[in-house]
């Protein structure tokens, strides 16, 4: 039987909630449910998914995206209908799965919002309907709640016996295939008046078994809070010999459970949160309600207190309302109003994504089935871009803490620990340096400085990270004692602390000297594209050479501003760093790779995982001049040596050299080779000369734009490229090999806006929206995916740094609401279709700890380049215009004089 193609999701009302019919006709769908307390869940339209608080504490079995449709293990809620048979309210019975393409398939509709998920399922075989709502309550409890409403949709009375069935995995993800059965022998299973609790005796690890304090539980109650009638605490007894989780004997035969009033203790088996509720008769249109509570706790649970808090329909509804308010408030700090309301609501989901990434890291969702929690170095700094817009009050301390992850050799720890200032060299103890890592902290810090005007932050003191690796992981310090801690020390043993400015200088100066044979910065372990990981000896990243050069130039300007605003003439720097500021005492030949290497080796020798502790005072002017000289040398070098001229008048930059020392991009006999990354960073800064920008755009449009899937990350290089990286082992059009990788596409759009190519930038951003929101192809909920694959499917949703960049671009470039050292700059780059029918486009955002609504009204042309700012009013009072080269400045003092906690309106007339 041919299935009708599912209609796409549609927003309901004016809010972010959406509805989707027949969601079970699309594979790989899942939805995040999470809180600030550490509960991390996901749920699919058939109640598959997982619930965990970390890598070692999974309540339900860990899974990958393919398990969403292949695994029988899921949250399930069974209904045995007297005289008729068994039916799964979640859609997970063998009969329902086998009958997917039959005429009597269940009718299914999904509704979701911030952050809740509801599926309504009506049986066409039985006269029953089920509505299942899931959410994780806001707060600190590691709890997921599930509410099931059963309704008799027939003309006759029915008698139903409900049974909740949630497999209790209750251990580390490492145990999924490593000693899966052995670790079940550790299970200690308890039943209480409301459900099943498991506390394994040990945390199983052959490096050292430890007594386990963590407990996991599944509990249930009827809507009025009354307790269940019995339990099935052991999985194999629930399914029966020859049975399965999708056709369990206990449900099919309506078997009697273990009585609830006796309690039980079992050990050594796979556990199940099997909860039998009392049999009930339902008249036509009557409903009955059940609450299921899934919980993780750091010790045995106080079940009566838990159920008093969560175990009733009234409690569920109250907490559900609180949760909606919490998440809407979290996301409403940034809102857009344009001529495309659907896109504005879609952006609300994009705005949520940086928060999800902060809470999940890069793990614990079905596509993100790698890693053990936490975030990497690069992720942290890029996620802070969005936090500066959404949660700015928290960012200063976050930035300060994380500079403690910088090593004295300019590299850094790669994993951020759970506590502030906690760092790990690498999760797998593999010495590796991503060459791009030093570039991101200043980009984020520069945004903070511009948003806040807090130049004093540059002079704050912070320690450095130290472990056994030195000289950018090329050497080991065999004298290092990990018990001494992870802080850099002086030769006398004192902890050394340098300014944030000093940390920034190290991260950007060391790479300048760490070059390959073509005088571009060495690729080392990889750069932003982790898939370019097989060119550590001779590989070079031209594109990030451009990024570092842009940083050097901007740091130079920031130093001059620091001197002008504070009157400070000198900065105190560790004496070893002066070796890298060569022009303050002598001028190296930057064209000589040999001279650069010799200078870098002298620096490594001077600071071999320790420093003297002596600081020298250098004039700000001399340091700024040195940085500018280095930046300008790089710009000239790239324009001369790395420019590829196309055969049709287009042109682009070669972005990389491989491990054979060969340029990766250019005109090859088999065709053009080009990467989007190689163009983005020269465009974002001054590396690309003005006359080169149109040529780059033409090359991207010709060689990388595929109207089916958007802007590809690269052309088809052919072969697996073992001299460059694993990315080229992926099929072309997937992930880092030629997919539409959202992160780099958004950054390309951002770069075009920065260079004044607004229509082109809008086209790029709009392409991402169109691809992502076309459900018939993308098969994903609202939001931006990590990438779009060759078939147009949205892959790896929710946890992607592209969301931060899209939000940043919309706020600071499209709507032009940005900081200039603390003052507010209004410089809109809106295109015609972004104004509504009345000629209005507006944004609500935070600036100077005030909530502002900036409303642009066009009284004439709405074409970018044809309008300018004519008048600005603040809460109805006209402001004296202070023009800058980009737009209009509003002094921070005027905003800080406004009442906090209120909405303030800026009306901007465009003429």
From TrEMBL:
Pfam families: GH94_b-supersand, Glyco_hydro_94. Residues 102-311 form the Glycosyl hydrolase 94 supersandwich domain. Residues 629-816 form the Glycosyl hydrolase 94 catalytic domain. GO terms for molecular function: glycosyltransferase activity. GO terms for biological process: carbohydrate metabolic process. It comes from the Bacteria. This is Cellobiose phosphorylase.
């Amino acid at each position: 039987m041919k299935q009708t193609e599912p209609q796409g999701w549609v927003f309901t009302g004016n809010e972010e909630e959406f509805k989707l019919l027949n969601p079970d006709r699309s594979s790989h769908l899942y939805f995040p449910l999470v809180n600030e307390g550490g509960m991390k869940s996901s749920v699919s339209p058939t109640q598959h998914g997982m619930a965990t608080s970390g890598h070692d504490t999974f309540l339900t079995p860990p899974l990958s995206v393919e398990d969403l449709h292949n695994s029988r293990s899921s949250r399930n809620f069974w209904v045995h209908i007297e005289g008729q048979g068994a039916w799964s309210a979640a859609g997970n019975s063998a009969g329902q799965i086998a009958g997917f393409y039959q005429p009597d398939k269940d009718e299914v509709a999904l509704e979701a919002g911030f952050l809740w998920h509801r599926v309504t399922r009506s049986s066409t075989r039985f006269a029953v309907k089920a509505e299942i709502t899931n959410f994780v309550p806001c707060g600190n409890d590691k709890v997921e709640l599930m509410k099931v409403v059963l309704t008799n949709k027939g003309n006759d009375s029915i008698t139903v016996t409900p049974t909740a069935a949630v497999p209790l995995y209750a251990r580390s993800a490492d145990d999924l295939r490593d000693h899966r059965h052995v670790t079940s022998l550790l299970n200690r299973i308890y039943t209480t008046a409301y459900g099943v609790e498991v506390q394994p005796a040990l945390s199983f690890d052959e490096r050292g078994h430890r007594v386990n304090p963590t407990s996991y539980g599944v509990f249930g109650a009827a809507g009025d809070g009354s307790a269940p009638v019995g339990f099935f605490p052991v999985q194999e007894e629930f399914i029966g010999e020859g049975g399965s989780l999708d056709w369990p004997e206990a449900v099919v035969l309506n078997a009697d459970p273990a009585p609830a009033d006796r309690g039980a203790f079992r050990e050594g088996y796979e556990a199940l949160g099997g909860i039998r509720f009392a049999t009930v008769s339902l008249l036509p249109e009557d409903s009955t309600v059940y609450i299921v509570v899934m919980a993780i706790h750091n010790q045995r649970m106080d079940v009566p207190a838990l159920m008093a808090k969560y175990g009733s329909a009234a409690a569920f509804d109250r907490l559900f309302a609180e949760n909606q308010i919490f998440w809407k408030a979290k996301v409403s700090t940034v809102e857009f109003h344009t001529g495309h309301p659907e896109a504005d609501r879609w952006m609300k989901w994009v705005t949520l994504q940086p928060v999800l990434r902060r809470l999940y890291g890069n793990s614990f969702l079905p596509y993100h089935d790698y890693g053990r929690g936490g975030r990497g170095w690069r992720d942290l700094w890029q996620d802070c871009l969005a936090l500066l817009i959404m949660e700015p009050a928290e960012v200063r301390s976050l930035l300060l803490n994380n500079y403690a992850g910088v090593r004295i050799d300019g590299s850094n720890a790669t994993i951020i620990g759970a506590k502030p200032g906690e760092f790990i060299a690498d999760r797998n103890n593999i010495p590796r340096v991503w060459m791009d890592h030093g570039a991101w902290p200043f980009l984020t810090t520069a945004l903070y400085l511009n948003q806040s005007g807090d130049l004093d932050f540059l002079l704050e003191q912070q320690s450095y990270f130290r472990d056994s690796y030195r000289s950018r992981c090329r050497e080991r310090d065999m004298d290092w004692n990990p018990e001494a801690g992870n802080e850099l020390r002086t030769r006398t043993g004192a902890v050394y602390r340098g300014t944030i400015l000093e940390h920034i200088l190290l991260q950007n100066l060391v790479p300048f000297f760490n070059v390959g044979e073509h005088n571009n910065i060495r690729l080392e372990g990889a750069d932003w594209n982790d898939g370019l990981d097989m060119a550590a000896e001779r590989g070079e990243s031209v594109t990030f050479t451009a990024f570092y050069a842009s940083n050097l130039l901007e740091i130079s300007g920031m130093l001059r501003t620091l001197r002008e605003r504070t009157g400070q003439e000198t900065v105190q720097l560790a004496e070893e760093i002066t070796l890298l500021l060569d022009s303050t005492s002598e001028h190296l030949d930057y064209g000589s790779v040999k001279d650069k290497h010799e200078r870098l080796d002298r620096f490594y020798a001077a600071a071999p995982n320790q420093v003297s502790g002596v600081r020298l005072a250098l004039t700000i002017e001399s340091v700024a001049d040195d940085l500018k000289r280095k930046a300008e040398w790089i710009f000239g070098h790239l324009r001369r040596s790395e420019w590829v001229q196309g055969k049709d008048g287009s042109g682009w930059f070669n972005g990389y050299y491989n491990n054979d020392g060969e340029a990766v991009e250019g005109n090859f006999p088999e065709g053009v080779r080009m990467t989007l990354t190689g163009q983005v960073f020269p465009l974002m800064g001054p590396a690309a000369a003005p006359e080169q920008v149109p040529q780059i755009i033409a090359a991207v449009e010709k060689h990388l734009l595929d109207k089916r899937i958007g802007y590809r990350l690269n052309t088809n290089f052919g072969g697996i490229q073992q001299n460059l990286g694993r990315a080229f082992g992926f099929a072309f059009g997937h992930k880092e090999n030629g997919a539409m990788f959202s992160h780099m596409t958004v950054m390309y759009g951002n770069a075009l806006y920065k260079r004044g190519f607004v229509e082109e930038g809008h086209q790029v951003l709009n392409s991402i929206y169109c691809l992502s929101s076309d459900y018939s192809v993308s098969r994903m909920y609202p939001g931006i995916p990590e990438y779009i694959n060759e078939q147009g499917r949205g892959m790896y949703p929710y946890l992607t740094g592209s969301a931060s960049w899209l939000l940043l671009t919309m706020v600071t470039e499209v709507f032009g609401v940005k900081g200039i050292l603390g003052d507010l700059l209004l410089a809109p780059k809106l295109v015609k279709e972004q104004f509504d029918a009345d000629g209005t486009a507006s944004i609500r955002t935070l600036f100077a700890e005030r909530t502002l609504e900036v409303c642009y009204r066009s009284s004439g042309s709405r074409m970018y380049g044809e309008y300018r700012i004519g008048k600005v009013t603040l809460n109805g009072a006209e402001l004296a215009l202070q023009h800058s080269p980009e737009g209009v400045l509003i002094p921070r003092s005027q905003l800080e004089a406004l009442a906090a906690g209120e909405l303030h309106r800026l009306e901007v007339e465009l003429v």
